[in-house]
Amino acid sequence: MTLSSDETVSKTDEEWQKILTPEQYRVCRKKDTERPFTGKYNDCKENGMYKCSCCGNELFDSNSKFESGTGWPSFFKPINDENIKCESDTAYGMIRTEVMCKKCGAHLGHVFDDGPQPTNLRFCINSVSLNLDKKNE
Ligand code: FE
After folding, report:
1. Domains of the chain
2. What Cα–Cα distance (Å) separates residue 84 from each residue in 16, 22, 36, 73?
3. What value does the CA radius of gyration of the chain take, rounded to a whole number of Å?
């Protein structure tokens, strides 16, 4: 695996396989997609911070989550532009924008421009790429 210079958590495929579930490894490290409506955070309405399931980097606040009906947890913005990175993805004959964790390069999902106000963005993210750190309120 080639790492971009801005990634600060660097592990070999073998090391990732040891600490991730097989599904996390397939999605986060091999850019697979979980089946819609199967992920544990699709319907989740709890408050907290969604962090990268590979490295713990903070990615999305629950207050930016919305019901998209797509079957994947969806957010209208990341917690900031520094913790994620986006790259053009032309796999499967589609032109999409891939969303990754900037710290470890994990594949998170894709971003589309049909989201709600105020950003009009829809970050369509795999549940297995996330870990919700619940707020104690
Ligand atoms: Fe990460």
Report:
1. 13-134 (2.170.150.20)
2. 19, 23, 22, 16
3. 14
The pTM of this model reads 0.93
Q: Which residues surround ligand 1, an ion (CB under 5 A)?
A: 52, 54-55, 57, 101, 103-104, 106
Alpha helices by DSSP H, the chain: 13-19, 22-24
106 C-alpha to ligand 1 centroid (Å): 5
Helix (H, G, I), strand (E, B) or coil at 122: strand
Instruction: Give yes or no: 124 in active site.
Output: yes
Q: Please work out, in degrees rounded to the nearest 5, the angle formed at the alpha carbon of residue 3 by the alpha carbons of 27 and 104.
A: 55
Amino acid at 70: T
Express each pLDDT in 55-106 by its tens digit: 999 999 999 999 999 999 999 999 999 999 999 999 989 999 999 999 999 9
